[in-house]
Amino acid sequence: MPKQIVKRFEVSYLKILDEEGKCDEQLKPSLNQDQIEDMFEIMILARTFDEIALRLQREGRIGTYASAKGQEAAQVGSAYALGKTDWMFPGFRENAAYIARGLPIEMLFEYWGGDERGSKIPEDVNAFTTAIPVGTQILHAVGFAWGAKLRKDKKVVLAYFGDGATSEGDFHEGLNFAGLYKVPIIFLCQNNQWAISVPRRMQSASETLAQKAFGYGFEGIQVDGNDVFAVYKSTRDALEKAYQGLGPTLIECVTYRMADHTTSDDASRYRDPKEVEEWTKKDPIDRLRKYMKRVGFWSEEYEKRVQVEADEKVRRAVEKAELVSKPVAADMFAWTFETMPPRLTEEMQSLQ
Predict the structure, then answer these.
(1) pLDDT per residue over 220-259, tens digit each?
(2) Which of 112-126, 135-149, 248-262 has the lowest average pLDDT?
């Protein structure tokens, strides 16, 4: 018997807004001027937060910090698309997504300053806490989404992770379970080209990361991760599919990590500066700005006002975070177990 083709798969690529701000109006999602300005302002606010956080780290006022510079469209476009009842499960770089989701900025500074009270997410912000271990949040997100399905709650979960996480077992276990049980979840991979110092080409033989979804029985799509319209549209489409009980979607956002992996890293030791220069031309904020100029939504006066407001908002958040009473060192021991084991009691006494 000759071989038969059992199934064919295709990976679609979505780009709506190019580097010059030219927009494919047929593909553009139905966003009005207020919404577009809102996303632009959140991206400016996130970039401002990022710049000030880096300065604070260099001054010793917060700890090791992971920059999201260059990934604002991937984070803001997706988080902005979520409904009020939907949930977000971040990794450790999703500062812009947190800001878009409404987390008070001072809490982000508390967290990066080593105060875990910054992780006490407010009741009206449907976001989970930061996950430092690579990929572990994927399992948490799948479990949460499965629970929502069993309870018949109309909510979808958005799980963020990077290209490096697709090489972790948690990624494959999570996608396999989600595909099998058709849980309402969106897996959003920010393929920023580098897993610390390991380039994308050395992480996987797959031509795309999006195609990994097909092995688990659901759709994968690749989008221009620096195009906020493409990210928003692909997220909305995935949301509607999940609301209808049609299961998960994997969205691979092709973007770039403009800064070092964290403030403990020096990317110049392994990354060609020409590569950074080329990706700088694709800056997501600059791209949206060019579009807004084309359609008459932008002016120098408008951007100046937006930047001043962002600076003031972030600086007020820094002041609030630094005025909070210092955490009690013993708390890191006291709240780990219901009953503190002898070993931790000894460590706490030693510290005191």
Answers:
(1) 999 999 999 999 999 999 999 999 999 999 999 999 999 9
(2) 112-126
Is 270 an annotated catalytic residue? Answer: yes
Question: Beta-carbon neighbour count of residue 1 at 10 Å?
Answer: 3
Token pair of 277 as six digits: 């220069």
Check 93, 236, 257, 287 and give the catalytic one: 257
pLDDT for residue 6: 84
Query: Is 1 domain-assigned?
Result: no
Domain-embedded: residue 164? yes
In a domain, 229, yes or no: yes
CA 96 – CA 233 distance, rounded (Å): 18
Q: Is 172 a catalytic residue?
A: no
Does any domain span residue 84? yes
> Which residues form the domain of 126?
12-351
The neighbouring-strand residues paired with 87 are 157
Q: Which residue, chain included where needed, has tokens 């991937």?
A: 74
Integer angstrom CA distances of residue 297 from 68, 221, 294, 317: 26, 30, 8, 28
Q: What is the pLDDT of residue 108?
A: 98
- Write out the two tokens for 121: 């997410």
User: Which candidate in 270, 294, 305, 315 is catalytic?
Assistant: 270
Label residues 150-186 b or e (16+ Cβ within 10 Å = b). eeeeebbbbbbbbbbbbebebbbebbebbbeebbbbb
Instruction: Please state, as a whole number, how many other Cβ atoms lie within 10 Å of the Cβ of residue 326.
Output: 8
Q: How many domains does the chain have?
A: 1
Q: What is the CATH number of the domain that holds 255?
A: 3.40.50.970
3-state secondary structure of 143: helix
pLDDT band at 334 (very low <50, low <70, confident <90, very high): confident
Q: Find where tokens 């209808």 sit.
A: 244
Nearest to 78 by CA among 235, 221, 239, 225: 235
Among candidates 102, 103, 96, which has minimal Cα distance to 40? 96
351 pLDDT more than 90: no
Cα-Cα-Cα-Cα dihedral sign, residues 315, 321, 324, 328? negative
Catalytic-role residue among 261, 287, 289, 291: 261
Residue 257 falls in the annotated catalytic set: yes
